[in-house]
């Protein structure tokens, strides 16, 4: 029950995983990647939002493609915050440990003389790394939403296009770029990020995109009922191909909604399998490092603060600093 409670509350025993790459690269390189990722996604999100709102008004934000891209943009920004928070925490711990603490060697052990005020403000490294900041929890929540919700939106858009053999290309090249970015690029960036980040995937977290889908279905039905006909109802943004809540079409609409509901569970399982594959590849090529995803640091254990990772393939890495806390 403790594991389930922590998982539902987005608490991880080793929260450093939210601020690091899975692979053997320095934290600076990873932060640069996060900056480029966020700059690209947020830039396109702002551009498409301004252009779409000018052409279609406020209803443009109701479009699932647009909403899912907003989620991706918010996630990309929070992931930058998580990476920076991790970098600051590591730098602060090192500064306090190796600059302000006086060390003296006694045989094979290292004894750290620390003032009570420093211990009170910083705490030992193990206790510090059991703390989950708000940005880590929000990062994990957004990741669990986009890793399944956004791909299912892409499928919902392209399925009728493929079935009806429609030509999605339009005369306006910006409209074509908008459709490609809101669907294909959206999904591709999510799976690319899943392969690069150390962020874990839990099957129990499928409840979050499922809950989001239930909320969207409720909003979809309410808009259909309150705005019956006319140009005021944004049919093109509410996926009327699937969800038409007129009396004669309620049963098929419910069937489509349930199919998407279980499709979200399937896509979350796919994300979990990719996560396990990523772990397996990491352990295979970087077996000298070990996987830290499930590490639960205790006060009795030695805490390793690494500035980089040594890889059995690349053969490079920075030294680790091992400090025994007594």
> How far apart, in Å, are the first and last alpha carbons?
31 Å
Q: How many individual β-strands?
A: 4
Low-confidence stretches: 101-127, 290-326
What would you report as the Rg, rounded to the nearest angstrom?
A: 24 Å
Tally of distinct domains: 1
Structural class: mainly alpha
Indicate the percent of residues in helices.
Answer: 55-70%
Q: Which descriptor suits the 3D outline?
A: globular
Largest sheet strand order: 1-2
How many helical stretches?
9
Mean pLDDT, to the nearest integer, reads: 75
Order of helices and strands: HHHEEHHHHHHEE
Largest sheet, described in full?
2 strands, antiparallel
The amount of beta strand, in percent, is: 5-15%
Write the layout of secondary structure elements.
Elements: H1 2-8, H2 27-56, H3 64-98, E1 102-106, E2 109-113, H4 116-122, H5 125-129, H6 134-163, H7 173-196, H8 207-226, H9 250-285, E3 303-306, E4 320-323
Antiparallel strand pairs: 1-2, 3-4
Helix pairs in contact: 2-3, 3-6, 3-7, 6-7, 6-8, 6-9, 8-9
Question: Could you please describe the fold and organization of this structure?
Answer:
There is one protein chain. The chain has 326 residues and is mainly alpha-helical. The chain has helices spanning 2-8, 27-56, 64-98, 116-122, 125-129, 134-163, 173-196, 207-226, 250-285, and strands spanning 102-106, 109-113, 303-306, 320-323. A two-stranded antiparallel sheet has the order 1-2. Helix 8 (207-226) runs antiparallel to helix 9.
């Amino acid at each position: 029950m403790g594991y389930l409670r922590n998982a539902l509350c987005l608490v991880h025993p080793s929260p450093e995983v939210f601020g690091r790459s899975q692979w053997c690269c320095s934290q600076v390189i990873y932060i640069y990647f996060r900056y480029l990722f966020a700059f690209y996604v947020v830039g396109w999100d702002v551009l498409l939002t301004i252009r779409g709102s000018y052409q279609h008004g406020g209803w443009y934000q109701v479009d699932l493609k647009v909403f899912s891209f907003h989620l991706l943009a918010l996630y990309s920004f929070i992931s930058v915050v998580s990476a920076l928070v991790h970098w600051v925490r590591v730098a602060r711990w090192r500064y306090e440990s190796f600059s302000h603490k006086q060390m003296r060697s006694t045989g094979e052990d290292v004894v750290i003389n620390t003032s009570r005020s420093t211990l009170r403000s910083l705490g030992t490294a193990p206790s510090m790394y059991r703390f989950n900041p708000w940005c880590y929890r929000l990062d994990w929540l957004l990741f669990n939403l986009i890793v399944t919700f956004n791909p299912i939106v892409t499928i919902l858009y392209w399925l009728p296009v493929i079935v009806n053999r429609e030509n999605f290309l339009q005369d306006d090249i910006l409209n074509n770029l908008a459709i490609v970015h809101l669907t294909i690029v959206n999904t591709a960036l999510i799976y690319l990020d899943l392969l690069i980040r150390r962020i874990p995937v839990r099957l129990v977290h499928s409840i979050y995109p499922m809950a989001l889908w239930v909320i969207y279905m409720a909003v979809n039905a309410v808009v259909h009922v309150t705005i019956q006909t006319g140009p005021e109802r944004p049919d093109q943004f509410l996926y009327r191909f699937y969800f038409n809540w007129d009396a004669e079409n309620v049963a098929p609409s419910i069937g489509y909604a349930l199919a998407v509901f279980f499709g979200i569970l399937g896509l979350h399982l796919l994300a979990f399998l990719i996560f396990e594959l990523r772990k397996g590849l990491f352990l295979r090529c970087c077996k000298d490092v070990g996987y830290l995803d499930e590490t639960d640091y205790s006060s009795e254990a030695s805490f390793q603060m690494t500035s980089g990772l040594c890889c059995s393939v690349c053969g490079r890495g920075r030294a680790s600093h091992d400090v025994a806390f007594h």
